[in-house]
Amino acid sequence: MKLLSTSEFSVRLIGSPFGEEMPRSELIVDGKPTGKVIDGAVLEAAIRWQDLLLVLVTDNIMHEETLRVYLLDTNFEVVDSAWLGSMYATGVFSLLELQPPNKIRFLFFGGTDWTLELLNEQTFALPFSEPRGVHRPLKFHRRFKISGNPQPDGG
What angle do CA 114, 60, 117 make, to 5 degrees? Predict the structure, then answer.
């Protein structure tokens, strides 16, 4: 498990940072554009784990911040994804802590520590079984689990 530097991995915002649309960014590896685009504007962390890449980006939207989590394969295709946030929640990503071999902890919103556990293989999971404030595409498998218990006020 290795935290990558911005010279190894970064994102470049596509379009205006003040636009009406969801912010999107191109993935940049070793200073070269990959042509791959994800939702999000600000790279918070990129972590190499086994042959996968865990990418955490925020949207940079005041008063309604979202943290987007992507697990990418060697071709930068999305293996699994989730996003943390809720209406009017002001999240600030901080206190990232790597916990080898397969966990990270961080603060974002809800007055709680969040833990993300990377899984060695796909695991069956029921949709809508995530903690409050965690959202995912409708799928029945996961390559990471997110746990945390945000406060009811969402702030």
Answer: 20
